[in-house]
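User: Structure with nicotinamide-adenine-dinucleotide, tokens only please.
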Amino acid sequence: MANPSILILAGDGIGPEVMAEVKRIIAWLADRRGIRFEVTEDLVGGAAYDAHGTPLTDATMAKAQAADAVLLGAVGGPKYDSLDFSVKPERGLLRLRKEMDLYANLRPAQCFDALADFSSLKRDIVAGLDIMIVRELTSGVYFGEPRGIFTEGNERVGINTQRYTESEIARVARSAFELARRRSGKVCSMEKANVMESGILWREVVQEVHDKEYPDIALTHMYADNGAMQLVRQPKQFDVIVTDNLFGDVLSDCAAMLTGSLGMLPSASLGAPMANGRPKALYEPVHGSAPDIAGTGKANPIACILSFAMALRYSFDQGTEAERLEAAVAKVLADGVRTADLMGPEGGHPVSTSGMGDAVLAALDAGL
Ligand code: NAD
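Assistant:
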């Protein structure tokens, strides 16, 4: 069988810098563990605009559709701020998400022991935290019609529409239940069924999918405002949380920040299974292109490395290798290796982006 394929779109700013460390891990897996991928690289965002006048060419889009997984670095930067909206770097990323129909956005919030003091919450509340927020990504109030700013009488009115079909709710619920089966078997669904009809339907459909297809999973429902409170009060009560696009946007940022630095946060966006059974998938760090530190060797590559670990787990059925990689990251942090963004008030000597990559590779070697 052919090796599984990966399309790397490193993008702009620190994107190529953090992706370089992932490429070293891909090479390590081939050399040391015989796990090989067909890797292709292409341009996205500002880099694609510079070369082709568009943030994503049709040819790159076709490659992304054909790949078993896409790894993205980051897009954007001040150089492109004055471009027309239609060719801004972010449009490249949005086109990928839309045309690949990536409806389930997975945002883990995991607190490495060594970094528990970085959280704004007390150590005992966050240490060992490992939860996964599944946010519906392609529908809901960010896309619903009618939308716009209209005039009514003598004043303007801004309108957005929260709209969900049963099938849109059911497919993201299935993503959450499937994930829960690989984790602790617990899903909490969040909406506002007390005040929104779309929330009532959300709750009913999630329950139906559960009862028919996933009776082995422990399902609970919670109003999203209470969910926000519970996330900062006692986050470890959750395992998988599934919620809509708007609530997911807010709740996943809140949960992520429980764990400290932006340079640590991975994500995955998954769509429907392809003919080979793998889901359409795009993996990317949550952070942007960090123009303030681009080119200085200060970027933390861990978010990008952990995004690749998610690819190993969710696209390539290499859960054991994903765990090894995550354990290597945990070991490096426990040993006190830090990029500049992870330096506490006591200071110290930060390593560079490639220095962090060296340390992760050494930990992988040590774990062989
Ligand atoms: P950002 O995430 O790029 O940076 C925010 C802050 O976090 C900066 O101080 C940066 O130095 C720091 N930071 C981010 N990632 C880091 C890392 N890996 N290691 C160390 N420090 C890190 O957000 P921003 O400054 O608001 O946006 C910069 C550009 O990135 C903009 O053009 C924005 O549109 C774009 N952006 C892209 C994405 C994406 O590609 N998915 C996401 C967010 C922002």
